[in-house]
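Renewal narrative, Specific Aim 1. Our central claim is that a sequence can be written position by position from structural information alone. The example that follows is taken directly from our test logs and has not been curated for this report. It begins with the structure tokens describing the chain, in the order in which they were read.
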């Protein structure tokens, strides 16, 4: 499980949380990002601790531990999604220099447009996960593009 080491400096957290208010005009998107940042979004790792799940394996790949980092960054289909988004936006926006686990999951120090794209993508990933739609890479990407238009 690839855990993010974000440190515990108060000024880092203040910067990160202030950024959410500036970027996300939609309260549900902002609320989702807050929950993600404080790890209040349940994964199978969390559900196993509470005795709700029998194992902690990802429901999609069935091999890796289902952590927030896995669901939003390390899972290979999600890596492809991030790659495709960066590739499509490359002519007008350089996402490549911001694409790393910490920037994507926490944000707070990226330009506003990058933060907004990251938030929308994570929101889409979460909503798709809840509906069981992340199994098809192509379908997932096409649906994501349509939902952003």
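The sequence written for that structure reads:
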């Amino acid at each position: 499980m690839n855990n993010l080491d974000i440190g515990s400096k108060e000024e880092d957290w203040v910067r990160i949380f202030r950024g959410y208010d500036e970027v996300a005009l939609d309260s549900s998107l902002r609320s989702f990002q807050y929950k993600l940042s404080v790890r209040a979004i349940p994964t199978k790792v969390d559900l196993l601790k509470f005795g709700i799940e029998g194992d902690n394996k990802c429901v999609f790949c069935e091999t890796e531990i289902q952590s927030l980092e896995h669901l939003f960054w390390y899972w290979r289909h999600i890596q492809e999604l991030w790659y495709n988004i960066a590739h499509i936006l490359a002519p007008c926006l350089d996402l490549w220099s911001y694409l790393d686990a910490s920037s994507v999951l926490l944000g707070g120090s990226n330009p506003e447009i990058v933060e907004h794209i990251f938030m929308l993508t994570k929101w889409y990933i979460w909503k798709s996960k809840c509906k069981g739609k992340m199994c098809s890479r192509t379908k997932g990407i096409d649906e994501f593009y349509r939902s952003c238009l």
